[in-house]
Amino acid sequence: MMNKLYIGNLSPAVTADDLRQLFGDRKLPLAGQVLLKSGYAFVDYPDQNWAIRAIETLSGKVELHGKIMEVDYSVSKKLRSRKIQIRNIPPHLQWEVLDGLLAQYGTVENVEQVNTDTETAVVNVTYATREEAKIAIEKLSGHQFENYSFKISYIPDEEVSSPSPPQRAQRGDHSSREQGHAPGGSSQARQIDFPLRILVPTQFVGAIIGKEGLTIKNITKQTQSRVDIHRKENSGAAEKPVTIHATPEGTSEACRMILEIMQKEADETKLAEEIPLKILAHNGLVGRLIGKEGRNLKKIEHETGTKITISSLQDLSIYNPERTITVKGTVEACANAEVEIMKKLREAFENDMLAVN
């Protein structure tokens, strides 16, 4: 997809060649044509990274024939809807702080980090409604955060012009590919297989499997589940992902049993502190778990007596679209929180799947 940029506040004396020269001098060469109008122009970049670099390097910073130029995404009124881009985010900002900030203005359906070569972070945010996106733009533009000032633009919301929502489809799709293993072609929403993925400290994997695999066999038998321990992944890592496929009740029961085994093991090896429950969830679902102004998460914490944190924006990459939800509390409290967290994530996932189908 091309990233069309609008260049505004140009002097009438500016020519297309002036713009080419200027962009070239700034190491932002323009490949396509420059569409010059009176006082403004349009240019295209095939790559979002280049577009971001052009906006960051030039907008409000460069003078041409005595006028300071403005550069931003060119988004027609029709496509100004629910999607915005936030740039110049402090690199160490925690995901949940950003999520909390975004949630003040409405329901965030999706946040994706754009992999850029800038030291600051860039995210594309989709709100549930165009009104919420509009308010977010007004309130967050220039929002100061630890000496960083947010830069915000609309980005084209293709869903407005096309009846079928491609963005959603792709996201649901991504989750289902991440999660895999849909049961034999059944299409009812209830049958959607949405496994629980948790991270388990490597030192407890042996205890969960048990001698000759007896412990894990016992768990799967009692809970009618399938438990995959991905021991090959991240060799040498301190934690291993574990995927549990079962009914929601079976999943929660298996999770509780695993938590009990880990706690018992920790007590015996004198690692006496509480072992947190770490749930992996696709980034596209996490906004809806958090809820507007963090309400959903606070409610779960309050009702279960746990403390829940969510991994930061920086840990996320194209290769790892999952966020880590860390739940701290007693085994009982963590197990109860898992039920509520998975209920929210499953609901978000099912809504995405319905949107796709």
UniProtKB/TrEMBL annotation:
Keywords carried by this UniProt record: mRNA transport, Phosphoprotein, Repeat, RNA-binding, Translation regulation, Transport
Location within or outside the cell: Cytoplasm, P-body; Cytoplasm, Stress granule
Organism this protein belongs to: Neovison vison (American mink)
Homology family: Belongs to the RRM IMP/VICKZ family.
GO process terms (BP): mRNA transport; negative regulation of macromolecule metabolic process; regulation of translation
Name of the protein: Insulin-like growth factor 2 mRNA-binding protein 2
GO cellular component: cytoplasmic stress granule; P-body
UniProt xrefs under Pfam families: KH_1, RRM_1
